[in-house]
Design goal:
The structure is a single chain. By secondary structure, this protein is an all-alpha fold. It is built from five helices and no strands. Helix 1 runs antiparallel to helix 3 and helix 2 packs parallel to helix 4. The two termini are 28 Å apart.
């Protein structure tokens, strides 16, 4: 692939990443505000990870949630997504760096590293906010029907592994960039 084509593709990916970042935040809130988007029975069955897990693990009717409980659920499910959004922002910045043909720069390494860290933080926040969401979502249920759920899935393990791999690759990229700069000074 030619450098010109890589630059154009990187710029497109930067735009797509920005759109994706916005869409995940809006759709997460919309799923709680409009429960028919989440509902499997008579709805669209659309949701994100924590929301889907909560809806699948509980039998609560989201349409009966008062406004304050919906707002709390939006906040709880948005916390991990904000970490992911931060990572997507740095992924976007990485693509913009590549669009400028700075493929092996220290800047690229920094953005890649922050993307990896954000993926790890997103995964860990999902593990923390999942039980909090189950408590929040079932606190108005009668005794014996309140839940505290916790799960660690193979997808969580894979996400953490990918995050660690990306952070290591970012560190290697930063070191390679330093070596390249040192070599350029001797030439």
């Amino acid at each position: 692939m030619s450098p010109e084509r890589i630059s154009k593709l990187s710029q497109r990916m930067a735009t797509i990443t920005l759109l994706f970042l916005i869409v995940i935040m809006v759709l997460n809130a919309a799923g709680w505000i409009f429960p028919t988007l989440i509902s499997r029975e008579g709805g669209y069955g659309f949701s994100f990870s924590l929301t889907a897990k909560f809806v699948n693990d509980t039998a609560v009717n989201l349409s009966l949630f008062p406004g304050w409980q919906i707002a709390g659920a939006v906040v709880l499910t948005s916390i991990p997504l904000l970490a992911l959004a931060f990572g997507l922002y740095h992924l976007r910045m990485l693509f913009q760096t590549y669009a400028k043909r700075a493929w092996f720069s220290a800047t690229a390494g920094v953005h890649l590293g922050k993307t990896g860290r954000s993926i790890a933080i997103w995964t860990l926040l999902n593990l923390i906010c999942g039980p909090l969401l189950s408590i929040w979502g079932t606190m108005r249920e009668p005794d014996g029907q309140r839940l505290v759920t916790f799960s660690f899935t193979p997808q969580d393990a894979v996400s953490l592994f990918i995050a660690a791999s990306v952070m290591i690759i970012a560190h290697i990229l930063k070191q390679a960039s330093k070596l390249h700069e040192e070599n350029q000074q001797f030439v």
